[in-house]
Amino acid sequence: MQKKYIVRLSEDERCELCEVIEKLKGSSQKVRRAQILLKADVEGANWTDERIAEAFGCPTKTVENIRQRLVEKGFEETLNGAPRLRPPTEKLLDGEQEARVIPLRLGPPPKGFANWSLRLLSRKVVELGIIDSISHETIRRTLKKMG
């Protein structure tokens, strides 16, 4: 099958990819993308997508996506990944709210329950008006952080 997106790397790009792989410079995703790009290079190894996918233990769609990203977005974004459009979410509970959740967890559970579950605790926090809505996962992270 004819490939729609052809990978042609310059000598500088090849050197940068080799450096990333040899020194394991960057995240594991970056190293894997570097390996895939080197093997997909028409003027280099020129492996098929199937062979690359098998060699690096990833789906062939991943290889196709990396080829496409190189052609459409450029070398830097392909290697390093796309920048986040928005930063990670801010904390849902401020210090005062956390200070009200922790004693609640340490207190006695509601009647009919032996212990506080995270879901039960999240429902109680909303019921008490500490916050409008909250997931049990946020409660878990808050309690874990507090030790």
TrEMBL record:
<protein>
    <recommendedName>
        <fullName>Transposase</fullName>
    </recommendedName>
</protein>
<dbReference type="Pfam" id="PF13565">
    <property type="entry name" value="HTH_32"/>
</dbReference>
<dbReference type="InterPro" id="IPR009057">
    <property type="entry name" value="Homeodomain-like_sf"/>
</dbReference>
